[in-house]
């Protein structure tokens, strides 16, 4: 194999593998370096997203939702199930098989697109050289005209709750429990904490989420966050805001091990809570350990992310960085789009990426999804806006499906009517918000959506009605503003 490539990508998560495939599609001789190994010690692609992130978490969210629905909700449809059982190891195995299928799929895509996979640890040296130490310890140095760094992120550890992979776990460990913990603690009521807390709550755990911030889902539109909080409360998720964990102690032996967590509550009082398992979900940090030689020319910013400009160029010419390892939201699709942009620009195209329209989803039930700016951000920016709201309780399709909780909130500019944001908590919120994201990409006004014919009965009609409500003429609810 010649050791010179047009493009070498380090990291094959959703940022890196997409960049590699797109570069190869454009005729560039491309290699992708990946150090992740599966349980059998074999190199696998797909990064956090496919191995321990988006996909396995959704597999367990779906399994646990089906169980919970059958147990609690079928009766409302007149269906009785009798005594129900669950087999957690089978659920975990199903999840593992999905991961295997998808990670294997990336290897197939690499082959089909003629991307050279290099399994091992990559390090960027000066002059766009890449050192790869393969899984047998053999070192090779490759040259490239362009290098794309896509090394991703890892969970943040906090000294007050050190992960032991037995009683105290991070998000990866929480995807591997072989039985349902009776008492489950979660530190951090953010996206990942809510998703993993929901999985185990639905399967029967008593779940307590300890969140240091006083505000629930501070980055989301607060009307939607408050509505979500009410829904989670109804579901029995015990979310304690303003509670900062200050210590933890693992006690007992073998199966009887438990962890006593100390935290200060919102009034500053110290409390303790005992759990069988504790999941630490306090965020992720960019991962650059061992990635850069001292003379690589690539700089980090103050948060430890690789410093890049709007086009994902680093401070070293011909070296780019994308995905979780750079600024911006840590979302798989954000990294993938950066990958496409960088690959196409290397190939001489003028591709840009629209950072203003990146959908963001929390896959609880119901889902929480958002695109564009929140009402709080618009207020802070002094932008004039109108809001249209449509609650799912007024949607025929939602009622038919017994999915009455939540609402669609559409925000449009007060003068131009251009859609500035859409925030949803409710059934299929992720897919509904995507419709609005497409409309926003085309510069749509709320009126444009209002004038579009929507199929009946669909959940999408709630988006239509929220758009109509912006101008005060929704049909299926009383409008706040009449026209
Ligand atoms: P990663 O996926 O982290 O991949 C980086 C890869 O680089 C890894 O495979 C790593 O082994 C490799 N690597 C690092 N350094 C080197 C090196 N020196 N040499 C060789 N290889 C190297 N996002 C969503 O959009 N939707 C979701 O529903 C969602 N759910 C999530 C659920 C969980 C539980 C978690 C943990 C995350 C979730 N995320 C979700 C976030 C998502 O997984 C990340 O945003 C995404 O994986 C980032 O992609 P990336 O390619 O930048 O990095
Ligand atoms: P996210 O960044 O969405 O994954 O959310 C992580 C959450 O963890 C944030 O909301 C933090 O406020 C929260 N957090 C961080 N440290 C602590 C701590 N010591 N105790 C409780 N919550 C914490």
Q: What does this entry show, briefly?
A:
The protein is of the alpha/beta class and 483 residues long. The chain has three domains: 4-155 and 285-346, 3-Layer(bba) Sandwich (FAD/NAD(P)-binding domain); 168-282, FAD/NAD(P)-binding domain, CATH 3.50.50; 360-470, FAD/NAD-linked reductase, C-terminal dimerisation domain (Enolase-like, domain 1, 2-Layer Sandwich), CATH 3.30.390.30. The protein has helices spanning 14-25, 47-52, 54-73, 88-113, 191-202, 222-235, 332-346, 375-381, 396-400, 429-441, 446-450, 461-470, and strands at 4-10, 30-34, 116-124, 129-134, 139-149, 153-155, 168-169, 183-187, 206-210, 238-240, 244-251, 258-264, 270-275, 277-280, 284-286, 319-321, 360-362, 367-372, 385-391, 407-413, 419-426.
CATH superfamily of the largest domain: FAD/NAD(P)-binding domain
Helix content: 25-40%
What summary fits the major beta sheet? 5 strands, mixed, barrel
The shape, in one word, is globular
Number of domains: 3
Rg from alpha-carbon coordinates: 24 Å
| CATH domain fold name of the largest domain | FAD/NAD(P)-binding domain
Number of helices: 12
Cα distance spanning the termini: 70 Å
Determine and state the CATH class of the largest domain: Alpha Beta
Q: What structural class should be given to the helix and strand makeup?
A: alpha/beta
- How many strand segments? 21
The overall pLDDT average reads 97
């Amino acid at each position: 194999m010649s050791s010179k490539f047009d493009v070498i990508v380090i990291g094959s998560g959703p940022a890196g593998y997409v960049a590699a495939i797109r570069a190869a599609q454009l005729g560039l001789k491309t290699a992708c370096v990946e150090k992740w190994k599966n349980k059998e010690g074999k190199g696998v692609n797909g990064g956090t997203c496919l191995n321990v992130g988006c996909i396995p978490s959704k597999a367990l969210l779906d399994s646990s939702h089906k169980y919970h629905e059958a147990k609690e909700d079928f009766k409302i449809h007149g269906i009785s199930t009798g005594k129900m059982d669950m087999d957690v190891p089978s659920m975990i195995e199903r999840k593992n098989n999905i991961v295997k299928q998808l990670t294997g799929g990336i290897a197939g895509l690499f082959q089909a697109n003629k991307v050279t996979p290099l399994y091992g640890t990559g390090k960027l040296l000066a002059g766009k050289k890449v050192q790869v130490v393969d899984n047998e310890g053999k070192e090779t140095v490759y040259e490239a005209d362009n290098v794309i760094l896509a090394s991703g992120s890892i969970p943040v550890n906090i000294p007050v709750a050190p992960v032991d992979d037995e009683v105290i776990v991070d998000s990866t460990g929480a995807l591997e429990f072989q039985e349902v913990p009776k008492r489950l603690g979660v530190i951090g009521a953010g996206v990942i904490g809510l998703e993993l807390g929901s999985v185990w709550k639905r399967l029967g755990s008593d779940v307590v989420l300890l969140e240091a911030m006083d505000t629930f889902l501070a980055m989301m539109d607060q009307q939607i966050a408050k509505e979500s909080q009410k829904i989670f409360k109804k579901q029995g998720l015990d979310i304690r805001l303003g509670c900062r964990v200050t210590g933890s102690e693992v006690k007992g032996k073998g199966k009887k091990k438990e962890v006593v967590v100390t935290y200060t509550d919102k009034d500053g009082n110290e409390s303790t809570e005992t759990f069988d398992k504790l999941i630490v979900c306090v965020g992720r940090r960019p991962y650059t350990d061992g990635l850069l030689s001292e003379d690589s020319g690539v700089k980090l910013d103050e948060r430890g992310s690789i410093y890049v400009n709007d086009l994902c160029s680093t401070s070293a010419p011909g070296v780019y960085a994308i995905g979780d390892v750079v600024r911006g939201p840590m979302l798989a699709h954000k990294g993938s789009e950066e990958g496409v942009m960088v690959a196409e620009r290397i190939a001489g195209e003028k591709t840009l990426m629209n950072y203003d329209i990146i959908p963001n989803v929390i896959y609880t039930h119901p889902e929480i999804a958002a695109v564009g700016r929140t009402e709080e951000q618009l207020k802070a920016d002094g932008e004039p806006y109108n809001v249209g709201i449509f609650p799912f309780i007024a949607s025929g399709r939602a009622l038919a499906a017994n999915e009455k909780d939540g609402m669609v909130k559409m925000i449009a500019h007060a003068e131009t009517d251009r859609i500035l944001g859409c925030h949803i908590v409710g059934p299929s919120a992720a897919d509904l918000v995507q419709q609005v994201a497409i409309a926003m990409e085309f510069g749509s006004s709320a009126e444009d959506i209002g004038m579009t014919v929507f199929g009946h009965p669909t959940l999408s009609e709630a988006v239509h009605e929220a758009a109509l409500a912006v101008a005060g003429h929704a049909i299926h609810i009383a409008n706040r503003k009449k026209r």
